[in-house]
Amino acid sequence: MTDTDTQHHRKIKSFVLRAGRMTTGQQRGWDVIFPHQGLKLENGALDIENTFGRKAPLVVEIGFGMGLSLVEMAGNELDKDFIGIEVHRPGVGSLMNEADKAGLSNLRAYCDDAVEVLRQCIPDNSISRMQVYFPDPWHKKRHNKRRLIQPEFVASILPKMKPGGVLHLATDWENYAEQMMEVMSAAEGWENQAGENQYAPRPDFRPLTKFEKRGQRLGHGVWDLLFEKK
Q1: Is the pLDDT of residue 186 over 60?
Q2: Which residues cross the membrane (predicted)?
């Protein structure tokens, strides 16, 4: 197989690895908390009720960064269980550390490729809300094909959602927002909660990050899309 063939057959991934050192808190989260509160791809299909010790609506977030907004959400919605999926260890360590400091028992995390976690670990008809906030925009046109929100990925999500479950996307790149709207509007089995081709106002459950506040001051837009499984 040639290099060109390899590129064409490369499977979609939810991430690009970037190296980074850990702070003391991140290292603590990774070394001390993650072994007890973390989830692992190699353990296979997840028993959600057993993991959290209860039956509750499940929220899954892909690419939570340093995890501060996800910890805030989990603290604000204690009636729900949260699973974050992030490939960067410093971010996972940060999330685990902050969740432990906040005393949260309704938050777990994977440190792996979200595409594989969803495929191998998350049961069908289990997710009440899935969140993908500010994914890498791959803003150069020749790199747009690397964006996560593509028809193949969206189709793979649908079986994992409960009927009425919501996929919530957010981006600060207008071109990516337009692509998201195009992909989601054409996808089978989804309905735009805001109406056809309409973006939604930021829902109260999505925290306004420092990054987003700065963008607002500079006049940058943010686009939210909420699509419900029919």
Answers
A1: yes
A2: none
